[in-house]
Each structure stands twice: as structure tokens, then as C-alpha cells.
Amino acid sequence: MNREINVLIKGFKMAFSSFTIFSFPHKVWDDNARIYMLLFFPIVGLWIGILFYFFNIACSFFGVPIFIRALICSIFFSLSSGFIHVDGFMDVCDAILSRSDSNKKQQILKDSHVGSFSVVATIILFLTNYASFTNIKRGVDIMCIILIPVVSRIMSAIQIINRKSMYNSQYNIVYINSKTKKYSIVSFILFLFLIASIILESILFGPFVYILYIEILIHFISCALATKSLNGMNGDISGFAISVCECVAILIFTYITINGGII
184-227 pLDDT, tens per residue? Predict the structure, then answer.
């Protein structure tokens, strides 16, 4: 029991050290804790969402101009995660938009050089985020946004466990063991987290729950298309799907607030 708790704690530390800029002083890595790292992935999202919310409260309190506030907000999720998911977004865009065969796409995916496709796609991504935050009405309660990074990371963790992985992915071992009892339990817990997030959003924020429905759909489609194109799932595709679905979710949030909370 003590060993399992120790591995669980390692998974928690690995999650924050790998997926945020708020790493622990003494970094640890244990392959046995990799599955628990995915279990704590939603907690990372919750931490980022809460920080985002209080950042906006501080901006309102100090009267930060809307354009500066929108600029910082448009990169906040990416900055909080150390841009690791944007890196995956860029790699996937370079690979898929090359329109090569799957083997060539995988080579491009692992290439450390930045291509023009990823640059253009990333500019579009951040401009869309910036436009969304610029058009959010003053005085709108953005608390419902807290769950957006939570849901995107729950979806990514579920996809990593259950989608066929690339043979050279660090998560290949996760997919291989996905049918074992421990991995099945983690996958089930993540699914419960997803249901709880939807119920909580529905109870607290009413029509804003549509944001999560659309976010889940966009994440699933992004993962499915990228996995099919690249012949397998990996961390880059996870980052790609997170970046895309969060961008769309913020866009939908802006749309709902502009239209008075009615879709």
C-alpha cells in the first residue's frame, strides 16, 4: 500500500513538472507512475483554470486595459503549460499539412525544425484567441472557463490510454497496458471526472455547458483525424487537440456572452 501511495505521489509530481511551468524543486520520474501522471492531468487543468480566473479578477481590480488583458489571456493557458501543448500543435500542423504519406509525416513530426505550416497555424490560433478575449463583454463572469482546461486534459488522458499509440511514442507502453486492471480503473475514473465536470457546469452555469459539449466533440474529432493521418496517437497529437478544442471553447464562450447567454 505504501509503495502504491508513493507511486501515486510521484505521478502527481510528474504531472505538474511535465505539463506546467510550476515544477517541483526535485524532479522525479518513474515509468510505473506514468499512468498516474495521466490521472492527475485534469488536476493540472484545474490549477491552470483557477489561476486564469484570479488573473482576470486582478486585471479587473487594477483596471488593466482590455487589449492588454486580451493579449495576456490569449497566451495564458499555453504559457501556464510551458507551451508544451503548442509545441505539439505546431509539430502536428507541420506533419499533416505536408500532405505526405504517413511515414514521411511521422518523420516531420519528430523533426525539431519549425516549418512554415506550423508558423501560420500558430498565428491563426493565437489571433483567434485574442479576438475572442477582446470581444468578451466587461463584467461577464468568466468562472465557467475554469473547467475548459480541465475537460481538454481529461479528454487527452482518455485518448492516450485508449487510442492505438505510435510505436515510437512515450505513451506506447500506456496503450499496451490499457486493458490491465489498473489502467482500466484509471480510465474509468477519468470518465467519471468528465461526467462530473459536465454536471457541475450545467448546475452552476446553465447554458454554458454547451461549451463543454462542443469542446469534447472538437477534441475527439481533432484526435481522430490526426491519429488517422499520422497512423497512431502520441503526446504531440494530445497537445494539438488541447490547443484546438480550448481555442474553440473560448470562441463559443464569447459567442454566448455576446448573444446574452442564448445559443
Answer: 899 999 999 999 999 999 999 888 899 999 999 999 999 999 99
Q: Radius of gyration of the chain from Cα atoms?
A: 18
Give the SS3 label for residue 42. helix
Distances (CA, A) of 29 to 40, 42, 80, 167, 177: 15, 19, 21, 21, 19
pTM of the model: 0.92
d(CA 59, CA 73): 10
Q: Which residue has the cell 464562450?
A: 253
Question: What is the rounded CA–CA span in Å between residue 221 and residue 7?
Answer: 33
Helix (H, G, I), strand (E, B) or coil at 165: strand
What is d(CA 23, CA 224) in angstroms, rounded to the nearest whole number? 31
For 42, 63, 137, the CA distances from 182, given in Å and listed in that order, are 18, 49, 46
Whether the pLDDT of residue 27 is over 70: the answer is: no
Q: What are phi and psi of 140, to 5 degrees?
A: -75, 130
What's the CA gap between 126 and 182, in Å, rounded?
38
Structural contact between residues 90 and 121, judged by C-beta atoms closer than 8 angstroms? yes
Give the torsion sign (CA, 118, 237, 148, 63).
Answer: negative
Taking a C-beta distance cutoff of 8 angstroms, is the pair 129, 247 a contact? yes
Q: What is the mean pLDDT of the chain?
A: 88
Cβ neighbours around 38 below 10 Å, total: 26
**Which backbone phi and psi does 233 adopt, to 5 degrees?**
-95, 145
